[in-house]
Design goal:
Layout: H1 9-16, E1 21-29, E2 34-41, E3 46-53, E4 58-61, E5 65-67, H2 76-79, E6 82-85, H3 88-103, E7 116-119, H4 129-140, E8 154-158, H5 162-171, E9 176-180, H6 186-192, H7 201-215, E10 219-225, H8 233-243, E11 248-254, H9 268-280, E12 285-287
Parallel strand pairs: 4-7, 7-8, 8-9, 9-10, 10-11, 11-12
Antiparallel strand pairs: 1-2, 2-3, 3-4, 5-6
Bound molecules: iron/sulfur cluster (SF4).
Iron/sulfur cluster (SF4) binds at residues 68, 70-72, 75, 77-78, 122-124, 159, 300.
């Protein structure tokens, strides 16, 4: 409303437009370098974001949905079901909130800036495709339309919604794609990632390979190691069979314990053997840092919509 005096506009905005995100709880870990925030959205839905500061980068893990409808049994977020999709603004605002906190020096380590964004918080990003696609543009487009982040520093994680992976490939945004695989065989993956009954392992990997070919960026395969469930040596070999020759990198994630779950992280020896077998076949593999574990801020643990936030 440029017909109003400029100095009166901010007060009008404050009075008429509700805030997008209201912080309701903040938890810190890793000597203040990991900060998890629970946000209340304008309609009362709850989501969480996690800021993680490393020596060489600051990563914001953002939510794309309140809750999640994918129903992966090892995941705290999945237990509460889907509340709703987030808007583009609600997604981008999580990044901006982290950027503001860093700029003001409110995160241990002094002032800084957000360098990386990962869509690995609550929700399946590609199930909220349009809002996520538009948020990606806001993140990577040059100012003043976007924040000017490097596309390669932005990662979108998916359980494998094949048509949407292909849509994202056609978008021409060279963000990194992360596929949550968790099993190389359909029989087990059908139980760990139920959407696998619709798009099986081979279709997901073929779509991810197409994405990698179009974007020129290797995709990552996320694999939560669960003791006695998916961490057998033969499954490492089966995973290698699937990935040899693809532009892919495996990220092994020791399972984060969730309350009430019988599943636990793999034995160290099994994890080492799993890595050895993949590396032995020439498949790039790393074991992910489990930052934020003590505040339930690590992968598969964001569950604000399903419980009262804890201060
Ligand atoms: S693992 Fe991801 S897709 Fe599966 S229920 Fe949890 S948030 Fe949803």
């Amino acid at each position: 409303m440029t017909d109003l005096p400029a100095d009166r506009r901010p007060a009008l905005v404050d009075a008429l437009l509700p805030g997008l995100l209201e912080p309701v709880a903040t938890q810190r870990a890793d000597a203040g370098r990991t900060v998890k925030t629970a946000w209340r959205l304008v309609d009362g839905a709850l989501v969480e974001s996690v800021l993680m500061r490393y020596p060489d980068r600051v990563t914001m893990c953002v939510s794309s949905q309140a809750g999640c409808g994918m129903g992966c049994p090892f995941c705290a977020t999945g237990h509460g079901g889907l509340t709703r999709n987030l808007s583009t603004a609600e997604i981008v605002e999580q990044v901006l909130a982290g950027a503001r906190a860093l700029r003001r020096g409110q995160v241990a380590g002094g002032p800084g800036r957000v360098s990386n964004v990962v869509f690995m918080g609550m929700g399946e990003p590609l199930a909220n495709y349009r809002a996520v696609r538009d948020a990606l543009h806001r993140l990577v487009d040059d100012p003043p339309h976007g924040l000017g982040l490097s596309a390669r520093a932005v990662t979108v994680s998916t359980v494998g919604l094949v048509p949407r992976i292909l849509d994202l490939a056609a978008e021409g945004l060279p963000v990194t794609l992360a596929v949550s695989l968790h099993a190389p065989d359909d029989e087990l993956r059908n139980t760990l990632v139920p959407i696998n009954t619709r798009w099986p392992v081979i279709e997901v990997l073929d779509a991810a390979s197409q994405y990698a070919d179009r974007s020129g960026r290797r995709f990552s395969v996320e694999y939560v190691l669960i003791r006695g469930v998916n961490d057998q040596a033969w499954r490492a070999d089966a995973l290698a069979d699937l990935l040899v020759g693809r532009l892919a990198h495996v990220n092994l994630i020791p399972l984060n314990p969730t309350p009430g779950s019988a599943w636990t992280a793999s034995r160290r020896a099994d994890q080492v053997e799993f890595v050895r077998r993949l590396a032995g076949r020439g498949v790039p593999v790393t074991v992910r840092d489990t930052r934020g574990r003590e505040i339930d801020g690590a992968c598969g643990q964001l569950a604000a919509a399903g419980r009262a936030p804890q201060a």
